[in-house]
Write a structure and sequence with these properties.
about 425 residues, alpha+beta, Rossmann fold, Dna Ligase, domain 1, five-stranded parallel sheet, five-stranded antiparallel sheet, 21 strands
Length: about 425
């Protein structure tokens, strides 16, 4: 089969790497891809939002399945564009993608299906004064969420009410564009987070390896939020009791809610969870895989990834057994100096030939002649296996030192709180 992977990051490199292991896979195209994906398949210079151009390319190259990495094409309706063609999009419809695309929609869905989550209230510019009054009476910390997609920057946790009022006002006045025309103010949940991934055909589901990622730039999970500095799988504190609570109180009601609403949902359900006093709550839904969690989840997946997708397409996912590697997989992200604020691109990368016992998933890289240069804030995910978390992380650190580029930075403490 010929497959087109949409996206350009480490998640998409991991997709291509896993698909290439399938005997069912013939050709892999990645749009637009990066220097790493070019070593596995064929990079294609297509905009991820130009559905007409994507359709034309697929028709010309015999593409049968499109696997979407980032959220924007799903929220913008790529499934709907292709639904009446012979090309299968592995992902939910535009309406179903509102579970990620609208915080208010997701909250309503959770409330409707008795799924545990933080209490909340939503506001628009028309209810601005009511929102300010709500903030001034709200317990600290205060969580502000832009309703729409804001490139991972639309969630603020504030410990000062007047600062929260100022941020709330700026958000409503366009700080995040259309994404913050509606604001969700949410109860702060104090606990430890983890990520649960299901694949569903809209009727049944299967659970992929569970992971935990680390978003903040600094050691000890301090400093500014990023797209993700590393991840660990499995997650030691997710024991059988907590897992069963996740299935009973979150996953099964989610799938039931999808069916009840009649949503067209083929693909990933990514549930951002938090454990509070031994019980799981939902922080958010995503309608695609996470990054950098994918870089530890897929290495632990022993089953044929393409076959999983085909079973979802056929509506037979419940008939498939998902095999998982018992080893730990950890990833550390090498980032550009200055990230997540301003940073330079085009820095020469060396040392790839010195890496041993680790997988390298390119994120912000590009080919420049015979060399590879940086092309983003998050540059490279280094993933390693180990019989223990510590062994896997030690392998990551060793190989992180072998890759060189000007301004390189990475956290050495991924998994520190497990």
């Amino acid at each position: 089969m010929n497959i087109l992977v949409i996206g350009s990051g480490g998640r998409e490199h991991a997709f291509a790497w896993k698909l290439a292991q399938s005997e069912l896979c013939k050709n892999i195209f990645i749009a637009p891809g990066n220097a790493g994906t070019a070593q596995i398949g064929t990079n294609v210079d297509l905009s991820i939002s130009d559905f007409e151009a994507i359709e034309k390319f697929c028709a010309s190259n015999g593409v049968e399945i499109i696997l979407v990495g980032p959220e924007a094409p799903l929220v913008d309706g790529i499934w709907d564009h292709f639904k009446d063609t012979e090309i299968y999009v592995f992902g939910p419809s535009k309406e179903a993608s509102r579970l990620e695309g609208s915080k208010a929609y997701a909250k309503e869905f959770m409330l409707e299906n008795n799924i545990p989550t933080a209490s909340y209230k939503e506001f628009t510019i028309d209810s601005k004064e009511e929102g300010i009054d709500y903030i001034r009476k709200h317990d600290l910390p205060i969580v502000l969420k832009a309703d729409g997609l804001a490139a991972g920057k639309g969630v603020l946790i504030l410990n000062d009410r007047e600062e929260a009022v100022a941020e709330f006002t700026m958000m409503l006045e366009g700080k995040f564009g259309e994404a913050s025309e509606r604001i969700v103010i949410e109860q702060f949940l104090d606990g430890i987070e983890f990520s649960v991934f299901a694949v569903t055909d809209g009727e049944g589901y299967k659970i992929l390896p569970i992971a935990k990622d680390y978003k903040r730039i600094g050691e000890g999970d301090t400093g500014l939020n990023t797209g993700g500095m590393g991840a660990v799988s499995p997650v030691p504190f997710v024991d059988e009791e907590l897992y069963e609570k996740v299935i009973k109180h979150i996953i099964e009601p989610t799938i039931k809610g999808i069916k009840t609403r009649g949503l067209d949902y083929h693909g990933f359900v990514f549930v951002g969870c938090i454990r509070v006093d031994g019980d799981p709550y939902v922080i958010e839904y995503n309608c695609r895989m996470g990054d950098p969690e994918t870089e530890v989840v897929l290495p632990r997946l022993k089953s044929d990834f393409l076959n999983i997708m085909l079973q979802v397409k056929a509506g037979k996912i419940t008939e498939l057994e998902i095999e998982k590697d018992d080893r730990f997989a950890t990833t550390m992200m090498l980032v550009s100096g200055g990230y997540p604020e301003s940073y330079s691109k085009g820095k020469l990368m060396t040392g790839f030939d010195k890496v041993e016992t680790s997988l390298l998933f390119h994120s912000g890289t590009k080919q420049a002649g015979d060399t590879v240069v940086t092309n983003g804030g998050r540059v490279l995910a280094i993933t390693s296996y180990g019989t223990t978390k510590e062994e896997a992380l030690a392998n990551c650190k060793t190989n992180a030192e072998r890759i060189e580029f000007e301004g390189k930075y990475y956290r050495t403490d991924i998994g520190f709180d497990l």
